[in-house]
Amino acid sequence: MGNEKVGKMEDEAKKRREKLKALRRQRQEKGDADSKTTEKEALPVPELKLRNYQPISEDLKEVPVKKAEAGDVEAHIKEQLEGQTATPTVTDDVDLLNLAPRKPDWDLKRDIKSKMDKLERRTQRAIADLIRERLKESTQADPSHFAEVPDGPQGGYESD
């Protein structure tokens, strides 16, 4: 019984090897076809740069690393200064509201300002309507408290 299992396992191993060989052949054939088309498109081999540490291996020590050179800062600054306008832009009036610190809830007030304006207009209209109604009620109830205005000129204001 033990020999049968071993023999069966060996057969399965041979089948797996054959499948792997067939896959390798297919990949190589496909690679040969692709290599003809990609010879022109071959990417350059990445260069090893050891900037952060000194290599221990002798093979890696042979790779020269150039020292990083700082750019010419003065020339760069001169170019920027020449590119700017001759007269710097200065605001004539300094608004004290922009300089003074703001209250913590200024942004909330700014956001609801339009809604508050609308409510303020409605409130003013409602107050005006209430005043008109009270005046109408008072004139209908007792019109005698208003002074009567004579129709014609009175007293010493007549002209001859």
Automatic annotation (TrEMBL):
<dbReference type="Pfam" id="PF08315">
    <property type="entry name" value="cwf18"/>
</dbReference>
<feature type="region of interest" description="Disordered">
    <location>
        <begin position="1"/>
        <end position="46"/>
    </location>
</feature>
<dbReference type="GO" id="GO:0071014">
    <property type="term" value="C:post-mRNA release spliceosomal complex"/>
</dbReference>
<feature type="region of interest" description="Disordered">
    <location>
        <begin position="136"/>
        <end position="160"/>
    </location>
</feature>
<feature type="compositionally biased region" description="Basic and acidic residues">
    <location>
        <begin position="1"/>
        <end position="15"/>
    </location>
</feature>
<dbReference type="InterPro" id="IPR013169">
    <property type="entry name" value="mRNA_splic_Cwf18-like"/>
</dbReference>
<protein>
    <submittedName>
        <fullName>Coiled-coil domain-containing protein 12</fullName>
    </submittedName>
</protein>
<feature type="compositionally biased region" description="Basic residues">
    <location>
        <begin position="16"/>
        <end position="25"/>
    </location>
</feature>
<feature type="compositionally biased region" description="Basic and acidic residues">
    <location>
        <begin position="26"/>
        <end position="42"/>
    </location>
</feature>
<dbReference type="GO" id="GO:0005684">
    <property type="term" value="C:U2-type spliceosomal complex"/>
</dbReference>
